[in-house]
Design brief:
230 residues; alpha/beta; seven-stranded mixed β-sheet; 33% helix; binds cytidine-5'-triphosphate; binds magnesium ion
Length: 230
């Protein structure tokens, strides 16, 4: 089926967590970045791991990832997530056929979800996890609601997102990197390619705020026991 590489963007500043580089914060017994990479280290369909870290911490990131045998490169990320992913993609081994992109800030990723995304990429060329939006959604501006929206066909998109490597490379080459796209699905769709939706998991949330961090700390021991201890 060809080699599979996962690019892990981990070059953010953690602004919404108070300027804390959350990817280096300890979750359980290791840094968050390591815990997230571990899911891919343990997955038998994933061959290579590339990390994009803040430019001034690549050596530090490399050091703390020393237990990850599939790590091939730690590259300097950019000012936007899109730039970080582009740098990671450029460092993926040449013979990668499928490239997954997964946020460092999403440690609760189950092996089955990774398997399902890869399977959908094989079938459709591009795929991402997404969950139905549960809340009522509505437009607002200037402190007042301005319009109704239907949540019927609305999904919250997660990672991993997976692509045939050639398709993702084409998307990065042909789309103007204005940083506006918040994920790779937007880039690939802008190029006119269909992206398949794979059912996500509520547990696969992104650690964004301090509150998320506390939730993650509470959930991690049971998740790690269930997924990583036999
Ligand atoms: N990321 C990245 N390069 C950037 C910005 C973000 O690699 N220039 C990564 C983050 O490290 C994270 C993922 O993209 O793993 C999702 O981003 P987010 O949750 O927004 O993290 P931060 O950008 O660090 O947080 P904030 O937006 O609050 O500053
Ligand atoms: Mg961000």
């Amino acid at each position: 089926m060809g080699r599979v590489c996962v690019v892990i963007p981990a070059a953010g500043e953690g602004t919404r967590m108070g300027g804390l580089p959350k990817q280096f914060n300890t979750l359980g017994d290791s840094p968050l970045l390591y815990q997230t990479a571990w899911a891919f280290e343990c997955h038998n369909r994933v061959d290579d791991i590339v990390v994009a870290a803040p430019a001034d911490t690549t050596a530090h990131a490399r050091h703390l990832m020393s237990g990850i045998s599939k790590l091939v490169r730690v590259v300097a990320g950019g000012a936007t997530r899109q730039e970080s992913v582009a740098a990671g993609l450029a460092a993926a081994p040449r013979d990668s056929v499928i490239v997954l992109v997964h946020d460092a800030a999403r440690p609760f990723i189950e092996a089955a979800a990774i398997t399902e995304v890869i399977a959908a990429v094989v079938l459709h060329g591009a795929a991402a996890l997404a969950v139905p939006v549960a809340d009522t959604v509505r437009y607002a501006e200037g402190g007042f609601f301005t319009g109704e929206a239907s949540r019927r066909n609305l999904f919250a998109v997660q990672t991993p997102q997976g692509f045939r490597r050639s398709l993702l490379a084409e998307a990065f080459e042909s789309c103007v990197p204005d940083g506006a796209a918040t994920d790779e699905v937007a880039l690939v769709r802008a190029c006119g390619h269909a992206v398949a939706r794979v059912p996500g998991r509520a547990g696969n949330f992104k650690i964004t705020t301090g509150e998320d961090w506390h939730r993650a700390e509470r959930r991690w021991p049971a998740f790690a026991r269930r997924n990583y201890e036999s």
